[in-house]
Amino acid sequence: MRRHFISSARSSRFALFATSLGFVIICLDVTVVNVALERIRDGLAIDSTALEWVVNAYTLAFASLLLSAGALSDRFGARRIFVAGFTVFTFASVACGLSGGATMLIASRVLQGVGAALCVPSSLALLGAAFPEPHARAKAVSIWAGTAALALGAGPLVGGVLVDRFGWSAIFLINMPIGIAGIWLTVAHAPDTVRHAARRLDLAGQTLAVITLATLTYAVVESGRRGWTSAIVTTGFAVAVVTGALFIAVEARHAQPLLPLKLFRNAVVNVSAVTGLSLNFGYYGLMFAMSLFFQSARHDTPLETGLAFLPMTAVVTVANVVSGKLTARFGFRLPMAFGQSLAALGYLSLVFVHADSSALAIALPLLTVGVGVALAVPSINTAVLAHVGPSCVGIASGVLNTARQIGGVVGVGVFGSLVRPELNNLAEGLHVAAILAAVVTLSSLITIFLGLKTSGSLVADGAG
């Protein structure tokens, strides 16, 4: 019995390591590419439009397929979908690194987005299966989220080092050994989730969901370059609204819908999704805006820019572990609310930052934002795992991560329109963006207090 317990505990730790590896390289890829853009442009001799799509193609595929990926995880088992996603992502990363032109690179980035979308909902479902005990699960989720957040913030620094030493291909090829290790660990140690094979595929719902999320993402991405009132942007939003309405109508009538609308009767799911959207709106938008601010207003190099983000990322893992302990002891509402409060304070502090501000004056607001986000992220994931039934864990995770991804895309689009290198005063745009991030964050704080009447139990209620 003791030997079985030790073996089971070891397998759970390896499963945590495997899912964290998958989430790490996915999050790393979100930001690491930004510092390599100039080298990619020079190396492949491509124009600015193609260069933008090197970044945006990944985001577009990732955001569009998260809901479908969550449903596939529930139907075919989280381990199978996670391994498939990890394999696709690893293969696509190698293809990116070996690309000789814009077409192959952009197509490979789309394939990376497909792999990432398959991995994220299934990784959270795997954690739920590997750590069925609520308090252990809360700690595991905090580690999973902490390593991913650290990777997200470390992206500019890692990218700067790899590009300077080995060239732009290295930021993609480095994913191959990580991917091989993660796939092996998952197959060898991760437990599978219950497969709901009798569930029929909701092809109409999946098609409408992909069109809605793709057109919404495309419109937001293009708004930074074309403007929010351009015909193609407004058309994209209009299509997203129409297909989104059709999606809801189809789901309401389908016997086995892609997205069971009853999920949204669960206050925990709603609050977690809103909180996740606001977290990524501010954090992703800030990363994008501050990267431009450092390089265009302060004239820092890519490596110096990466180093400037270190105060925000250095404490992420510690804060995530603290969040896990707070969640295990007090429930998820406390770290969720406290984290959002700290993040809002950090955003507001950026109003006092200018191009000639000292390193300390810039580091303190970034540090506050980093701690706040790191405290909040594990709690929203833990909340969803604890309050959604086993048959809907994958799709609920897909909903949460879709909300977060949409928040990130909108944040980058809005912040990008406010902080552009051609503006005479980049700092003024940064100040407006920071205030907007604080307002969105504080708005989500209100939903936490109104929507969560209790501290947030970690014992699953089987909802959904």
Describe the protein in words.
Belongs to the major facilitator superfamily. EmrB family. Residues 15-455 form the Major facilitator superfamily (MFS) profile domain. Keywords: Cell membrane, Membrane, Transmembrane, Transmembrane helix, Transport. The chain crosses the membrane at residues 12-33, 53-72, 81-107, 113-131, 143-162, 168-191, 203-221, 227-250, 271-294, 306-322, 334-353, 359-380, 392-418, 430-452. The chain has helices spanning 2-32, 37-44, 48-76, 78-97, 102-130, 134-166, 170-173, 175-189, 203-226, 231-253, 267-297, 302-308, 310-314, 316-330, 333-349, 359-386, 393-418, 426-451. Helix 4 (78-97) runs antiparallel to helix 8 (175-189) and helix 9 runs parallel beside helix 17 (393-418). The protein is globular, with a radius of gyration of 21 Å. The chain is an all-alpha fold and 464 residues long. It starts with a helix and ends in a 13-residue tail after the last helix. It has 18 helices and no strands. It has two domains: 2-199 and 256-451, MFS general substrate transporter like domains (Growth Hormone, Chain: A, Up-down Bundle), CATH 1.20.1250.20; 200-255. Residues 1-7 and 459-464 have low confidence and may be disordered.
